[in-house]
UniProtKB/TrEMBL annotation:
Membrane-spanning intervals of the chain: 75-98
Alphabetic keyword roster: Membrane, Transmembrane, Transmembrane helix
SMART domains per record: Robl_LC7
Signal peptide: none
InterPro entries: Mycobact_SerProt_Inhib_Rv3364c (IPR053141), Roadblock/LAMTOR2_dom (IPR004942)
Record Pfam families: Robl_LC7
Species for this entry: Yinghuangia soli
Domain Roadblock/LAMTOR2: 9-100
Protein name as catalogued: Roadblock/LC7 domain-containing protein
């Protein structure tokens, strides 16, 4: 079961503080709902989460093209003008997204994200939402 937003605040802050140049940290569900954020307002976190839903879906589709893999996305890294973007699978139906300035240590960021997912990944899961009729979406 997913922890409440407040329960994740200190963990996301710890990630941001441990990697210089980190701007935003967002935990999201696979359907693009922001679960928790650090370093940005709610509207920014919601936009990031919505964009990540499409990106993780696209990444998963590409992953199925590898015959010996399990078809799941693990990590996406995008270098953009001005910075870096990271999206990592973080539990069943949950993802960890980070935006960082271009001076970020990419290796350190990947390591800290993996450490965070290993520490709390089992608590980072987002079960499918139920419709009013009780069916999962």
């Amino acid at each position: 079961m997913m922890q409440k937003r407040a329960d994740l605040d200190w963990i996301l802050k710890d990630l941001a503080d441990s990697v210089p140049q980190t701007r935003h940290v967002v935990v999201l569900s696979s359907d693009g709902l922001c679960i928790a954020q650090h370093g940005c307002d709610v509207d920014t976190a919601d936009r990031i989460a919505a964009a990540c839903a499409g990106l993780q879906s696209l990444s998963s589709a590409i992953a199925t093209e590898f015959p010996h893999g399990d078809g799941r996305m693990r990590l996406v890294v995008i270098e953009i003008s001005g910075g870096m973007f990271y999206l990592m699978a973080a539990g069943t139906g949950a993802y960890l997204a980070v935006l960082a300035d271009e001076g970020v240590d990419a290796g350190l960021m990947g390591q800290r994200m993996r450490d965070l997912v290993m520490r709390i990944g089992e608590h980072l899961s987002a079960p499918p939402r139920a419709t009013p009729a009780g069916r999962a979406t």
